[in-house]
Design a protein that fits this description.
Low-confidence stretches: 219-226
Number of strands: 8
Mean pLDDT: 89
Strand content: 15-25%
Order of helices and strands: EHEEEEEHHEEH
CATH class: Alpha Beta
Distance between the termini: 54 Å
Structural class: alpha+beta
CATH architecture: Alpha-Beta Complex
CATH topology: Ribosomal Protein L22, Chain A
Length: 226
């Protein structure tokens, strides 16, 4: 899919199939359909990372307390270079994936462009004047629905951010039609991810090296000053 104007991004989609991915999570008691959706999304992520130049064998996908996925270097790799942020979604026969350059968070959501939303469900996503607008303009519902889901993902809050409280003009959001899909994308400046013990050690080592030019690592490592 073509990128939108903004930070460096990579957007992609692929058909959901019965497949496997080394980045997949274990999902106990998952249905065959759910496994296919999850694995297809993670396999698409692998391909996006390879295109971006990220060695898939050196990273893993972790989750925040709100279950938002993010990339991390594997323990033992001893890297702290910033990684792109990710977002994955699936709907119908398609999985979608988005990457964005370090320093930003991203969210992507997609639905069939002609999918209708029952009028009884509109008050779950909107209120007040926006709800009245959607009741009178139901064809706009799928665009607003995907846009708000993209915002929830970009904020790393999921349903902890009530879609009825999301005012889209307050966020970076772009919606567009790609073939048979309505795709919505949202992005923001990055916040903080949970830190690992390895991250803390690398930061402390880097700080010590900056503050002390004679700092040494290991019992046989030395530094010569000329």
């Amino acid at each position: 899919m073509d990128p939108v104007t903004g930070p460096r991004m990579l957007l992609a989609r692929s058909r959901i199939t019965d497949c496997a991915s080394q980045l997949a999570e274990e999902i106990p008691r998952a249905t065959t359909k759910r496994l296919a959706e999850h694995n297809s999304g993670r396999l698409l992520l692998e391909r996006c990372l390879e295109h971006w130049g990220i060695p898939v064998d050196l990273i893993e996908v972790l989750r925040t307390e709100e279950r938002a996925p993010y990339l991390s270097w594997l323990n033992g790799v001893w890297k702290n270079e910033p990684l792109p942020d990710i977002s994955i979604g699936h709907s119908g026969e398609w999985a979608v994936c988005a990457l964005i350059e370090p320093g930003y968070w991203i969210g992507i959501d997609a639905e069939p462009k002609n999918r209708g939303i029952n009028s009884n469900a509109l008050n779950m996503m909107a209120k007040g004047d926006e709800l009245n607008f959607l009741i009178e303009n139901s064809k706009m519902a799928i665009e607003i629905w995907t846009a708000k889901e993209a915002v929830q993902k970009a904020q790393k809050l999921g349903m902890n951010l009530n879609p009825r409280d999301i005012i889209l003009k307050e966020y970076n959001v772009k919606s567009f039609v790609f073939d048979d899909l309505m795709v919505s994308l949202s992005w923001r400046e990055a916040g903080e991810y949970p830190k690992t013990a390895e991250d803390d050690l690398l930061e402390k080592t880097s700080k010590a090296m900056r503050e002390n030019p004679d700092f040494i690592v290991g019992c046989k490592t030395s530094r010569s000053n000329i």
